[in-house]
Amino acid sequence: MNMQEAAEHADSMLDATFGAIEPKVQWAHDQNSTGSCDVTRRRTVLTVISEQRRGNFLGVIERFWKKSGYEITSVRNDKEFPAIFAKTSDGFGIALTIADKGQARFEVATPCVEESKVAAPTAKPNGPAYEGVEIPRPNVRSDFWSAENPAVSPSAKAARLIARPQNSSGQSSTTSVS
Hints:
The protein is of the alpha+beta class. Helices cover about 20% and strands about 25% of the residues. A hairpin with a 4-residue loop joins strand 2 (about 35) and strand 3 (about 40-45).
């Protein structure tokens, strides 16, 4: 494998990871780099990931990476700046870090491979490209990812509902338990 092929593989890892995020987030390519035998590809999320939804976001990514066969190598359980790190069986490292203002950053580092020229990524960002300028802090609001209240799973919602016996008209009713 040469550096271009490694870069393309890194890009496909990022494409697949972003494909697993629902609802979708807006992202842009960040500074990519090449070493003497390795490549680093980066994407920065422009959607605000609120403090209350960061755990959900990291959970989506961790489950997807595990499902993809990646080994989780480290988790930073910091309330403000959490992160998750993983690696593939062929030596690619992938990371998600949450930075200032809830800005999520993804990075894939390739193993050392045969030296070659490396082209820019071909995937188009789903928002502004920010080529040649600094990427701003997250500025895109999402009804889900930017919400200020914790997400509640469907099973947790169901657990809070208690079925009551049928009322005098023969209809069952439910009540929510606080």
